[in-house]
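Sat 14:20. Reprocessing the chain from the morning session after the first attempt stalled halfway. Input below, unchanged.
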Amino acid sequence: MNKTQLVEKIAAGAGISKVAAKKALEAATAAVKDALVAGDKVQLIGFGTFAVKEQPAREGVNPATGKKIKIAAKKVAKFKAGAELAEAVK
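Finished this time. Tokens:
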């Protein structure tokens, strides 16, 4: 499902226009992004949790040359499905 299809589903499910659904989706994703950038986590009970995890620097291997390389530390966004969502997907 792409963004357009998701907007259509939201509009149909909520009984609102596609324009309003698109604005709502964009506002929700922006709010999640802003929270993660600020270092907060976003918990949606029954759906899941979005959080930022720090990956430490580590040593890797270049598969083409076999040489060891240093991989810098970085922050990544993580999602952990909630119990309801995990059960529904089974």
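The first helix runs from residue 3 to 14.
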